[in-house]
Amino acid sequence: MAAVAPSILAADFANLQRDVEMLNTSEADYIHVDIMDGVFVPNISFGFPVAQAIKRYSTKPLDFHLMIEKPERYLENFRDAGADILTVHYEACPHLHRTIQLIKELGMQAGVALNPHTPVELLSEILSDLSLVLIMSVNPGFGGQKFIENSYRKIYKLNYMREELGADFKIEVDGGVNNTNARSLVENGADILVAGSFVFNSSDPHATIAALRKN
């Protein structure tokens, strides 16, 4: 059974409290919070005040995904904003090991995200330090994109590396996830499915989340 992390970026921000409370009463395992700076990705999402508001209303663990340059500048701020899991991008962290250790020292679970073009093998020296690896199955920055088929192979490879290492990090997938590909993602090794517009644009988000979890 897959864990599900609905992406709050796809929520109605005029009714943010309502949508967070809807997720509280659903079978969602986490709430996925995308932070974009307009530099690392060509879009801007929201900052600390909105993140703090999500935390105020949420009863689910918050899974923060930082699509920002130099994320090490803000680790403590995101801890204070309510992050339970803090994921940084491999491509944005020249001193990745140090950043991961700082996240853990601040009391959060540490994750690393990979863009579609980045090979999973580049994480081989740090996998044992991680709680989560996030495979981007679209190019980060915008919701509603088409799933990149090569993502299955990356997940399969990463799952093999996890088994060889005897590690226990979770494999999360973000981008174009729906009921058509969810089963294959889980069969290839994914543990957590991030879904944004697929959940929030559905006529019954609770049922959509429950169906994703059954994969």
Automatic annotation (TrEMBL):
InterPro entries xref list: Aldolase_TIM (IPR013785), Ribul_P_3_epim (IPR026019), Ribul_P_3_epim-like (IPR000056), RibuloseP-bd_barrel (IPR011060)
Domain of life: Bacteria
Binding-site residues, substrate: S7, H65, G141, F142, G143, G144, D174, G175, G176, G196, S197
Keyword Transport among UniProt keywords: no
Key words, A-Z: Carbohydrate metabolism, Cobalt, Isomerase, Manganese, Metal-binding, Zinc
Gene Ontology molecular function, alphabetical: D-ribulose-phosphate 3-epimerase activity; metal ion binding
Entry annotation: catalytic residues: D34, D174
Keyword Isomerase annotated: yes
Cofactor needs: Mn(2+); Fe(2+); Zn(2+); a divalent metal cation
Note describing how the cofactor binds: Binds 1 divalent metal cation per subunit.
EC nos: 5.1.3.1
Cellular-component GO terms for this entry: cytoplasm
Residues reported in the UniProt entry to bind a divalent metal cation: H32, D34, H65, D174
Pathway note: Carbohydrate degradation
CDD domains assigned to the protein according to its UniProt record, in alphabetical order: RPE
GO terms, biological process: pentose catabolic process; pentose-phosphate shunt
Catalytic activity from the UniProt record: D-ribulose 5-phosphate = D-xylulose 5-phosphate
UniProt-listed PANTHER family: RIBULOSE-5-PHOSPHATE-3-EPIMERASE
Record-linked HAMAP family: RPE (MF_02227)
Family under the similarity heading: Belongs to the ribulose-phosphate 3-epimerase family.
Primary role: Catalyzes the reversible epimerization of D-ribulose 5-phosphate to D-xylulose 5-phosphate.
Full protein name: Ribulose-phosphate 3-epimerase
Organism encoding this protein: Dyadobacter koreensis
Lineage of source species: Bacteria, Pseudomonadati, Bacteroidota, Cytophagia, Cytophagales
